[in-house]
Amino acid sequence: MRTEFRLSGSGGQGLLLAGIVLAEAAILEDKNAVQTQSYGPEARGGASKAEVVISAEDIDYPKATDPDYLLALTPESYKTYGALMGKGTIIVDASVPLSADIKARTLSVPILKTASEDLGKKVVANIVALGVLAGVSGIVGEKTLELAVKNRVPKGTEDLNISALRKGFELAARANA
User: Fold this and answer.
1) Hey, which residues does 92 pair with through a beta bridge?
2) Among 176, 171, 6, 168, which residue's Cα sits nearest to residue 86?
3) Which residues pair with 69 in a beta bridge?
4) Cα–Cα distance measured from residue 43 to residue 110, given in angstroms and rounded to the nearest whole number
5) What angle do the packed helices 142-152 and 15-28 form, to 10 degrees?
6) Cα end-to-end span (Å), the chain
7) How confident is the model at residue 60 (pLDDT cuts 50, 70, 90)?
8) Of 62, 60, 63, 71, whose CA–CA distance to 8 is shortest?
9) Measured between alpha carbons, how far is 5 from 71 in angstroms, rounded to an integer?
10) Any bridge partners for residue 130, and if so which?
11) Kind of pairing between the strands at 2-10 and 47-55
12) Is residue 159 pLDDT above 80, yes or no?
């Protein structure tokens, strides 16, 4: 079973790291995973996209061709990639206006607000988003994802990032209810 993820937003939001962490967690659970990324020439603020493909079988093509899950943290990424979603689930930040033209199942979740207000650090929005994505998809276990986060985030920020991940899982539980 091949599951495809597209994480999109703007440069500086940490979505490339989130994709790497998701792929690592899958590998820790003995699944096959590949992560690809693309971003604009700007250091911050330009378009940014990470794709993760996870499968129990060999992965013959490393890019997401028909994502099962789209994470969109900006209006631009929602419009661009949401319009391409023929199936699957879109997880969009609550600050992004929804479009009636986009028909895929869409969950509007306060990812950026949770990071900045509940955790006091907007820089961990990527890890909150990762918790939401993993919680909604069920692709990897929470404890495995915690280990992957600890392996990848800067030393000294582990506790903050684990708190962000747990907040994301809580948001996912509410969104799925």
Assistant:
1) 72, 108
2) 6
3) 5, 89
4) 25
5) 120
6) 25
7) very high
8) 71
9) 8
10) none
11) antiparallel
12) yes
